Amino acid sequence: MSFGRGTARDQRLPEALVLVLKERAAANARSAEAEHRLILEEALRGGRDEFGQRAARLRAPIAGRIEGESADLIRDDRDP
Fold first, then answer.
1. Phi, psi at residue 54, to the nearest 5°?
2. Residue 77, helix vs strand vs coil
3. How far apart are CA 22 and CA 16, in angstroms?
4. Contacts of 73 (CB under 8 A, 6+ apart)
5. What is the pLDDT of residue 10?
6. Within a 10 A sphere around the Cβ of 1, how many other Cβ atoms?
7. How far apart (Å, rounded) are the C-alpha atoms in residues 30 and 16?
8. With b meaning 16 or more CB within 10 Å and e meaning fewer, what string describes 8-19?
């Protein structure tokens, strides 16, 4: 499995991890390299999507309750 800098084994990945990757690849009828690429792609793309979804869920309960510039709000809280 080549990734430009050598095989997964050359990158000093633990042998157990390489074995799991190869088993997962075989179970999905893909090469280990293709499986590795897919895992990286899903992990990197999923992070952005999940972040956006979490942020939307956090914003929903406070929507419309906070108005104005944050600097003005901080100043109001700080100054008597």
1. -65, -40
2. helix
3. 10
4. 66
5. 52
6. 19
7. 19
8. beeeeeeeeebe
Cβ pair 33, 3 in contact under 8 A: yes
pLDDT in tens, 10-69: 567 889 999 999 999 999 999 999 999 999 888 777 667 778 888 889 888 888 777 778
Give me the pLDDT at residue 45, please: 78
Tokens 């390489």, residue? 18
Task: Give the burial string for 25-57 (b: 16+ CB within 10 Å, else e).
Answer: beeeeeebeebbeeeeeeeeeeeeeeeeeeeee
Burial of 22 (0-12, 13-18, 19+ CB in 10 A): middle
- For the residues of 8-59, what is the DSSP string, one character each? TTTTT--HHHHHHHHHHHHHTT--HHHHHHHHHHHHHHHHHHHHHHHHHHHH
